[in-house]
Every structure is written in C-alpha cells, then in structure tokens.
Amino acid sequence: MKILKLSAIVLLLAVPSLVLALTPLLPLALLAFIGVIPVLLASLISIRLAAWCSGLIGFLVFLVELANPWPWAAAMLMVLVGLGIGCCAYRGWHTVAVIGSIWPASLLVGERVTIDTPSPTWFSGGFGELVLPALVVLLGAFWALLVSSAFLKGLPRSEPERVAAADALVYGVALAVLLGSATLAISLWLPGPNAGWILLTILVVARPGFAETKQRIITRSLGTVSGGLAAAILAVLLPFPAVLTTAGLLALFATILLQLKNSNYAVYAFALTAAVVLLSSGNGSVLEVDIQRVLFTVIGALLTAVVAAALELALRPLIKACQEGQVGAEKEFIGR
C-alpha cells in the first residue's frame, strides 16, 4: 500500500513538468522537476525544512544562471555549495542538500536553457533569461511542498542522521575543494553538457567519513557501468526515440522510489545512470552519451578518492583533537 501511495504521489509531483512539456516551454520541463525530489525528501523530515528547501533551491538556480558564463565565479559558487552541504551534515540534512545541488551543478557547467520564440519576449535575453529558470524551479518546488503537505501524512517520518562536527568539517572542506576545482577545470577545458556528470559523481560519491566514501565509489561505479550498459543494449535493440524516452522516464520513476526507500546503492546508481543516459542523449547517440557518462564517472570517483584520502590525513590531528575535546566535555558533564 505504501508503494502504491508513493507511486501516486510521484506521478502527482510530475504535473508541472508534464504541463510545460505540452507547451512551447518544453525545454523548461526538466527545470520544473529539479526541486521536486529534495523538497519531497525534506518534507519527510519536517515541512518547515521543505519550505526552506523550496526557496533556497530556486535562489541557487538563479545564482547558477548568473555565474554560468564566468569560470571563476562558477568555481566560487560551488565552493560555497560544498561548504554549505558540510554545514547541513552537522544537522543531518546533507542528503537533501546533495540531491538539491546535483541538477543545479550540471546547469552551471552546461549550456543555458533557451526558448525559441517567433518574436522577442521578456525572457528572450538579459535579466529575464536569468530569472525564468529560477521561477520555473520555484514553481515545481512549491508544487512539491503543497503535495507533500497534503498527501504525506501517515507515511513514516525520516529522522536526520547528524554528523559529528569534525566529520562535517572534513566533509564540507573536501566537497568545497573537489567541486570548486572540478568546476573550474570543466568550465575552462571540458565544455559540454556531459561534463557535469563529474560534479554529479562527486556530490553523490562523497560522504561524511572516508570509509563510507570508499564504499560508495565501488557501488556507484558498479551501478553506473551496469546501468549504462543496459541503456546501450536497449538503444541497440530498440532504436526508437519514443521507446527510449519512455524507458528513461520509467527508470527515473524507479530512481525516486529507490531513493525514498533507502534501497541498495548499486541498484539506485543503476537506475539513475540508465535514466540520465536515456533522457539526455537527445538526437545523438545513446552509446556515445553512455561512454562519456561512464568516463566522467570514473574521473569524478578517482578525484573524490584522492582528495578525501589526502584531507583525512591532513586534518586527522584536528579531528582527533575535536573528538578528545568532545569526550572530555561529556565526562565532565557526567561527573557533575
């Protein structure tokens, strides 16, 4: 029964995207879905957190559109995003923050969303071109907030998993270094829509605690390669755009359910990779997109492993001091 209810909620959440897909604003359909999943996950913790998430993700997309043309500005923005996720980890909100940062990060290093119109409109250029994507994201996010408030009653609440201050510090610094340097490198030397997969990999693979990060590198690599292989085989056997798009939407639907149920991470990575490859290949070769995604995933995973290990070694004395200080404070409190 819970699966059926979640399935119905996910379909209802997609209404703004479906409506936009039937209008001349089709390129904005995906933007309307950017804030849906993080708001849905935040609402399982608290509606107040979901409301904050709705506004912040719209503001982040506006900053992304503003910084897009300038590599150094884009890199600094992602440094702030990494530090912000580290702060969220201290409160146990890092999963929501990561999911909410994935698509904006991809937009930051990709081409701006444009709408072809027969005559100039307020969103054809200038400030309107910056504001429109953020407004569409806000529309989808607030719709998700409304649906979550109305239909998520009765579902089990999600308790935030707080991260120790020292681990949250290392996590935030690692993300800031990884995201900032990778964004700068992509903006300068790897332009193109698929290079954003490096940032996506960093965000999804990196986790508080190096042991968990190593495990995610392995499971994500396995899931990504197998999901990409499945998408490529499907593209060879059934090379029809309608079939591939439908399969991509079904994979995306499965990804959302797997995220909500905290399923095996390799299975989640499999569904996510298949969905993104099938939906983002456009008129090009699915196999070509598949190969690029896998390559960029390997690059992102290697960067994460190297930087996480280096930072753990560099900051180990600070972590140990923080842990000893915390233990000492607890003993003093108990002694009273």
Automatic annotation (TrEMBL):
Describe its membrane topology: Multi-pass membrane protein
Which compartment or compartments is the protein found in? Membrane
Q: Name one GO cellular component term.
A: membrane
Where are its TM segments located? 31-64, 71-93, 130-152, 164-188, 194-210, 217-236, 265-282, 294-315
Q: What is this protein called?
A: Integral membrane bound transporter domain-containing protein
- One Pfam family this chain carries? FUSC_2
Residue ranges of every copy of the Integral membrane bound transporter domain listed in the record: 184-307
Q: Which domain of life is it from?
A: Bacteria
Alphabetic keyword roster = Membrane, Transmembrane, Transmembrane helix
